[in-house]
Specification:
3 strands; alpha+beta; three-stranded antiparallel sheet; single chain; 3 domains; 139 residues
Length: 139
C-alpha cells in the first residue's frame, strides 16, 4: 500500500498532500501557528487526573532514577575509549575516561584529538598536541 501511495504522490503531485514521502512525516515541521495551538490546548480535570495517575504509576522514584543513572554511567565508562595525556613539561600523565572528557580538559574538540592520533599513525612518530601534550588514545 505504501508503494502504491508513493507512486500516486510522485505521479499526481497532489496539492493538499503536504508530506512527500508515503507513510513518513520525515522532513515535515509544524507551523508556529500549529505549535501555538498545541500549547494552548486545555485538558479537562478528568484528563489531567488520568495523566497524573499514569505518570505516578510509571515514573520511577528519585532513588530509582539515581541508581539507574549510576548504572548508565558505569556502562558508559566501560564502553568509553580512554585517553592518556602527558604534559611533557611536568611529566604528569592524566587519564581521561573518554575522548570527549579529554577534549574538554584540553579545551579543544574531539576531532582535533582524533586528527592528532591519525597523524601519529601515518608518520609513525609522536606528534605533540599544542606543543606540550603527548596524546595516547587507547582503542
Amino acid at each position: 500500500m505504501i508503494e502504491r501511495e508513493q507512486y500516486y504522490i510522485d505521479t499526481l503531485n497532489p496539492e493538499y498532500n503536504i508530506l512527500k514521502i508515503a507513510g513518513s512525516p520525515l522532513g515535515y515541521k509544524h507551523s508556529e501557528e500549529t505549535i501555538a495551538k498545541f500549547k494552548a490546548r486545555l485538558r479537562t480535570p478528568e484528563q489531567t487526573a488520568k495523566l497524573q495517575e499514569h505518570l505516578a504509576k510509571h515514573n520511577a522514584s528519585k532513588e530509582q532514577r539515581v541508581k539507574a543513572r549510576e548504572r548508565m554511567l558505569a556502562i558508559n565508562e566501560k564502553k568509553a575509549i580512554k585517553v592518556e595525556v602527558t604534559d611533557v613539561r611536568t611529566q604528569i600523565t592524566t587519564t581521561y575516561t573518554s575522548i570527549r572528557k579529554a577534549a574538554e580538559g584540553l579545551s579543544t574538540d574531539i576531532k582535533a584529538l582524533q586528527n592528532n592520533e591519525r597523524v601519529q599513525k601515518e608518520k609513525g612518530e609522536i606528534k605533540l598536541f599544542k606543543k606540550y601534550y603527548q596524546i595516547t588514545i587507547m582503542r
